Every structure is written in structure tokens, then in C-alpha cells.
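seq as requested:
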Amino acid sequence: MNNLYDLDLPRTPANHVALSPISFVERSAEVFGARTAVIHGARRYTWAQVRERCARLVAALKALGVGRGSTVSVMLPNTPEMVEAHYGVPATGAVLNTLNTRLDAALLAWQMNHCEVQVLITDSEFAPLMDKALALLKSTHGREPVVIDVCDSEFAGPHERLGAHEYEALLAAHAPVERLQGPADEWDAIAVSYTSGTTGDPKGVVTHHRGAYLNAVGNAVTWTMPHFPVYLWTLPMFHCNGWCFPWTIASLGGTHVCLRKVDARLILEAMSEYRVDHYCAAPIVHSLLIAAPAELRQGIGHPVRGLVAGAAPPASMIEGMAQLGFDITHVYGLTEVYGPSSVAVKDPDWAAQSLAEQTRLNGRQGVRYLLQEGMTVMDPETLAEVPADGSTMGEIMFRGNVVMKGYLKNPAATAASFAGGWFHTGDLAVMEADRYVKIKDRSKDIIISGGENISSIEVEDALYRHPAVVACAVVAKPDPKWGETPMAYVELKAPDAATAEELIAHCRGLLAGYKVPRDIRFEPIPKTSTGKIQKFQLRERARSGSACD
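C-alpha cells:
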């Protein structure tokens, strides 16, 4: 029934507009048009220029038949064209599909077919790989997208062409549209991003304009970012749409410093030359900076702030970055919640604690983002919240506007992930007395030895405290007596920097006896392009005969 406040107070275009991060680009072009928006080698673009380039891209894509419900896939490193794709593609009404640059041709073809790609924008560095993927896409699925080639000025290799269109020529051939427009309905899809597919086919995570808008703002609020940040792209933009930071930087009139390759020297040189003050990365990238020669950091005399996520950061990494003087904030999330959706908010009182205690506090996954409506730890069967006692284990769950629409063409997986009105992450955690969440493990990574649960993260944290360890991963090894025992794969800072016996003795000083790894292998650890360790490969190794001899 209508009440007093429902009468003659209609929703109109004057008082209600669908939320979309595309509006941030228009505002920055209008208000900060002369400020530098993008730096990439010798190239510089202002916000006014970026807005015009995106408006030309919109016109070009529309001329190719792209519109609401179309999919535009992009195979691009962190370049200006990748930034522009995040603005221009959604402004056509289409859905952006950012492809992982480290996938093989078969999986790329599968993903492009699954999301029914209409246009592909691809960098010439990946031409040989994409040529194979496109051939498979045609022969296996009968699909032939329009291909737009990007010939980046900073790529030193051959500029092989796959399609009929070259990006810069295509922009030049089209007059810009009058305005970058968001959708009529903020629930419209803005992107589809694929999970790693460690079990079965990957799942296509569909996100919407409203969530992208809110998480972009949430990043700025959570990190207390000022106007005009200088942001370095160490995080691949293909990963959760760069955790929504393409849109965050646009909202603040900041500067995107593009980087084709993640390399400690290139990162530190860019920080020094451009006075970069913000960046995001997985723990392994932060560890690269810790291990870099001290002389590479000598030109960095200004404050630098980093976000760490993508994997639970070892205490040694947080401690190492603090010793370098970099201000690191720990966030947590998944592709299904647009990247970071919780944060270990730093309480000012923590500054009085020892460095070791600050490291422990900052190493937690923390509390929900301001614009995420719910995050807690629950029993996955009963959906009862676990007590905030720091020991009762449950599953992290989210709910709110910064949660995906669901999985593309997979209603069963969507329904299962939203059971009980919460998004089920699959991450096992405890809630401490201050209601900060601390992950103990992925449900599939818990090691059960003699009936006792062992957190692989806890064992890894102990190993990382040894000065010779640069990377490690702990998985379950089948054991005839105990069922499972911890097995560690380790990469050292230098060959022969430590023996297995030394590392086991080191762990005995930090862990209960049953948690100490029985077997340590010095082998390369498989990682994704975003720095996540691929434990499923290590679990397969551990189950193989060679791992159980």
C-alpha cells in the first residue's frame, strides 16, 4: 500500500540514474581534462584525450555491430589500449571479456566460444598464440570474431597482424560519439571473467555495472586514496578487471602508469621516475621487491602504498615490506566479488604493538569493504555464524551489491554458490574477538593427518620465516598410517641455500610436531600469471608415485 512518501514523488531521469563506472571517465575529462591520465613509455594521454579515444572506440565497435549483449574479448597486457577497453567496451552496452595472457590456445578458444565472442582485440605479442586459438575457435566451434590488432609502440617484437583492422587506424577512421553512456539498467553485465578452472571447465563470472561502480568507489574509500594518485599497473588488468582499479583511478583523476612486464627493476624504476604512490600485487610480486638489490630502491624517497591480495601473504612478506618503508594494506576477495571485498583495516592503536604483532594483525583478511553489505564466517551446512573465538572454523561468506550476477550458462553452480542467501567462497576461516576474519585454508587444501586438521597456510608461513625460502607451497601427501601428512615444495633464494633437514628443523621450532612437513622437495612451483600458486598441480604431483617414494 502506498504511503504519504509514495505520492507524487516519482522516479525520473532527473533524480535517478543507473550507476556505471563509465561516468567517472566523463567527469575526469570534464574536470581534470588537462591532467595526465596515462603514461606508457613515450606515450602520454590526458584525460580529455583518453575520453576522446574511448569515444572513437565506441563508435568503431558500434560500426562493427557491437551493442548490448555482445561480448568483446581482449588479449592485452597492461597498456593504454587495455585501459581504454575498460571504458569503451562497456559504453557500447557490450560485455568485456579480459583473457588471461598465460592460457593455452585450447582454453582461450573454449572461453571465447563459451561467452560467444563477437570482437577480439589482441596485442601483436600474442599473435602466434591467438592465431592458434582463432583456428581452434573456427574449426571446433564455427565461430569467427572480428579481430582488431594492437601494435603497441613499446613492444619490440614483430607486429604480426591477424585481422582486418588495426587499432589506431580504426580509431582514426571514426568520429567520437558525443558522450560515453552507461546502461539504462545498472544490473546489465559489464564483464565476464573466467575462474582458473582447477576442477572441470572454468566458470564465467558475470559482473554488473552497479557492482563495478561501487567496488571502484570502495577501493578509494578503503585505501583513503587522494585525488590524482599515480598508480602503477603491476597487477594484470585481466585479473578481476584489475580489481576495479581502472575505474577507481578514473574516479580520482589519477594517472595510469602502464607496464607490459612485471619485473622488479622495471617496477622500481617506474616508481622512482614517475613518483608512483600506489600499486597492487600478489604476494610474490612484493617478495620480488624485497629481494631486489638495494640500489634499485635508492631513487624512491616518497611514500609508496601497496595492496596485497591474491593469496594469503606470508608474515615474512608483510614484515619485509614494512622494513623497506612501503605501506602495505592486506585485502581479500575473489573474482565473484569483483576482486578485493574485505580489508585488514589498520587500527591506529596497532602502532604501539611490536612489529611481529603488527604483522600478525595486518596478515588477517579483515572486515568487509564499506560498500559490501555483508561478510561473515558461517557453518556451511547450518549457515549459523561461528563464534568470534579465533578457533572455530567456518566458511567465509559475502552478500551485497558487490557480488556477481552469477556464472554464465551455469545455473546449477550459481544456485549452489548463493545457497541460503549468501555467496559461499570455499575459504575456511576463523573470526577473532574483534570480528576480523583470518583464513586458515581453502576447503580443498586442509590436510587431515590422523584425524587432525592442518592448515597448509600455517605451515607455509613457518617455512617463509626461513631466510633462504623465496617461495613455498604445502599440500597433502598420501600416507598409509596417518592418511595424509604435509609435503612442502620449496624454491630457494640460491641453490643449496638450505637443506631439507634444515627446513624441517626450522619448522619444528615453530609448529606442533604433527604439522611439520615430513617431505620437502626443491622444485619449481607452478603459478598463475597473477602470482597465485597452482596447488592443484602440486596435489597431483604429491599423489603420483614419484612424490610418494
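DSSP finds 17 helices and 26 strands in the chain.
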